[in-house]
Backbone:
């Protein structure tokens, strides 16, 4: 059995904690491991680590590989050069699996950012889905609705089909009155976005309903785990639901017997977290008085709240967001407004993880940017140069090795080093302890665009 984990979303409804360059699937939201890592671990009973392929945007591949390495395995990662929604992502992943030795196996396709804790019941749903998939069906997991949710799409079940049902139809996100009718009807399920099928069946349905995707697969090029840009830009942008699921007559439904939460909003986060006697979820440095049924999250500063109910208040290093609990889906509208203004607050946290460690932006202005870098033990930055800026490093703690074309220089706490524009260089940590330095960038282009790697 194979699995394709879709990890390309941006998690805009969980802004400011989720950012474009570090979205919610990479976050550890109150757990020791990230949502992506939890997804991988959940699959281990049925699917070996080497049979799991994670598909993501190329800008996330290094962090995903780092997180998979933390699980003790080198999982396969396929990078998309462009966001084209889930239809092309799934089709390209199927093609990639076939070119790398997959036969007509059953494949499970699932998002990377769902929270499922009851692994035993989840495995029961997988077993039933595999039975139907083996008979030529494309199986979707349906979640029995517990309330009239307007933020999810629905699936209507039809006649009984072995352990599941024939799918009668997919329906879009309803208004409240329609959602209440679906709940009373009893035959409607939330669409969980998890699918199980034989590889050949899925590809046949792509050929049947989306030839503009299927016909591009034969000429698609893969280079070191990355889809070639020219191959992918020809693809239409469309979801797997619109491309195949809502058109095919081979769709079956199996109930998802386990718990499930897509963590698609701050209200969803609130619902799964332990609460105090007043119904509050408090995280970080928070002080509250007469606050009820609220989520208060502090990443750095003290957050003090009094005499409020049913609110969400989130503080990160560079942003504060507040809304009413029942309207937390509207955080996406704030994200979209900031995106339209090209705000850096939707792209990056001030602290950013990298394969070699992490960095935090401490100050910036016209022509300069200051960062604190932490290089983990025995890690190094790649050999690279900058055309538009120079860099000045001051070692705070640990021992640094600076490598240039002229050789190596070792630096200790208090030492400094200048890297002029146009000079190849690498920063390395040869010790068992962390290396921390202050970096000052000065120049015309201070972004990651001004970098050439060797």
Residues:
């Amino acid at each position: 059995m194979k699995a394709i984990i879709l990890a390309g979303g941006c998690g805009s409804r969980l802004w400011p904690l989720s950012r474009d360059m570090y979205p919610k699937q990479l976050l550890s939201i109150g757990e020791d491991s990230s949502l992506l890592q939890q997804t991988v671990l959940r699959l281990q009973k049925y699917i070996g680590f080497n049979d799991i392929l994670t598909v993501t945007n190329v800008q996330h591949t290094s962090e995903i590989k780092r997180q998979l390495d933390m699980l003790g395995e080198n999982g396969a990662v396929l990078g998309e050069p462009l966001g084209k929604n889930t239809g092309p992502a799934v089709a390209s992943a199927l093609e990639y699996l076939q070119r790398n030795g997959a036969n007509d196996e059953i494949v499970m396709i699932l998002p990377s950012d769902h929270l499922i804790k009851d692994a035993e019941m989840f495995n029961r749903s997988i077993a039933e889905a595999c039975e139907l998939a083996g008979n030529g069906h494309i199986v979707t997991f349906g979640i029995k609705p517990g309330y009239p949710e307007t933020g999810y799409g629905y699936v209507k079940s039809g006649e009984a089909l072995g352990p599941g049902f024939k799918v009668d139809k997919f329906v879009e996100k309803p208004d409240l009155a329609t959602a209440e009718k679906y709940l009373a009807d009893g035959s409607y399920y939330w669409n969980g976005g998890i699918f199980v099928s034989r590889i050949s069946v899925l590809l046949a349905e792509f050929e049947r309903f989306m030839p503009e995707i299927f016909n591009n697969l034969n000429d698609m090029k893969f280079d070191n785990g990355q889809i070639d840009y020219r191959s992918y830009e020809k693809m239409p942008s469309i979801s797997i639901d619109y491309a195949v699921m809502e058109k095919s007559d081979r769709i079956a439904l199996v109930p998802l017997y386990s718990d499930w939460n897509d963590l698609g909003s701050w209200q969803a986060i609130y619902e799964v977290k332990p609460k105090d006697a007043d119904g509050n979820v408090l995280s970080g440095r928070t002080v509250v008085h007469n606050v009820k049924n609220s989520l208060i999250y502090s990443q750095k500063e003290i957050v003090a709240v009094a005499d409020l109910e049913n609110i969400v208040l989130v503080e990160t290093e560079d942003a504060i967001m507040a809304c009413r609990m029942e309207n937390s889906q509207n955080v996406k509208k704030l994200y979209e407004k900031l995106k339209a203004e090209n705000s850096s607050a939707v792209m990056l946290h001030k602290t950013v993880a990298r394969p070699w460690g992490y960095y935090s932006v401490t100050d910036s202005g016209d022509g300069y940017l200051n960062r604190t870098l932490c290089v983990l033990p025995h890690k190094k930055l790649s050999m690279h140069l900058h055309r538009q800026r120079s860099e000045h490093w001051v070692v705070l703690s640990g021992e640094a090795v600076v490598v240039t074309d002229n050789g190596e220089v070792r630096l200790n706490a208090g030492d400094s080093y200048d890297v002029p524009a146009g000079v190849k260089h690498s920063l390395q940590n040869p010790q068992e302890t962390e290396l921390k330095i202050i970096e000052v960038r000065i120049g015309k282009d201070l972004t990651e665009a001004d970098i050439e790697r060797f």
